[in-house]
Amino acid sequence: MNSTEKNNRVFIMGEIVSEAKFSHEVYGEGFYELSVKVMRLSGQADILPVTVSERLISERDLKVGSTLCAMGQFRSYNKLENGRSRLMLTVFVREPLDAPPARNPNSIVLSGYICKPPVYRTTPFNREIADLLVAVNRAYNKSDYIPCIAWGRNARFVKNLQVGDKIALSGRIQSREYQKRLSEVEVKTMTAYEVSISKLAAFDSAEDFDLEREFMLYTGTEKAEPHPEGSHSQM
Questions:
Q1: Does the structural domain 108-234 have CATH classification 3.10.50.40?
Q2: What GO annotations for molecular function exist for this entry (predicted)?
């Protein structure tokens, strides 16, 4: 596994809840987008966008109601909507798995760079939250821009990070609905996707930081449950 593959690893398992729609073609192979319902440990569900090749759809007979269990990457791309560029996110399936049901069907490990000043705030109930955007290198000099959200002590740690700082993190991908006001009378329900951080670390040198050892991809087969507020460190 090369460094750009280590930087961005996702494990998901859930039920396909939408028909596959054509997305794009690369070197003659078609890729399709579909929605996958992934259950949280709490019993709630996230509906996540997933991109999968037509070859895998055919080989695995993927359809509405099927279970998708796979390793992949969380990727971003820009889509033009109403003359404006919008950041789109998707789980890109790289390897389907024949895995037994895991306790945690949604796990992600990322390593990248802070590319916007983190936004720290508190809720009316005094819960601390910090939003950050992480640029994750991909092969062929591409990058994915992944929105992340930190809570509690992780949020306090994040608010002191600077643009350009290297960080590694683990957590899960979540979907969240919000209301966007289009006019005085029109409101549209939108869905945002982001990584909810359970553990993070800032580090200076990739040579001195073992990402795989520090952030093992959690697929539910491990015995330790992640702490709800996670942990942080400065490497």
A1: no
A2: single-stranded DNA binding
